[in-house]
Design brief:
single chain
Length: 80
Amino acid sequence: MSTQYSHEFTGRRPSQSQVVKILKEAVKQGAVDISLDWGENWLRFEKVRGWAGGISWHGYGWIRSLGGDDLAKQLNKGIL
């Protein structure tokens, strides 16, 4: 099981459903460090232990109107 997952979208701008599908696949494979790229646009996700001892996802960057932080919050809530 790999803890890192990287995917590069090519061609046209990826849709929200394409991005979410790849993100779910990475999480399902047990990745804790995820990198999704499309040209100079990118999303990064890290599963880390917080100050209070809880483990949660943190997200950074943008692809389209999708923000890494917003998607990480959905992962933490179990929505994705």
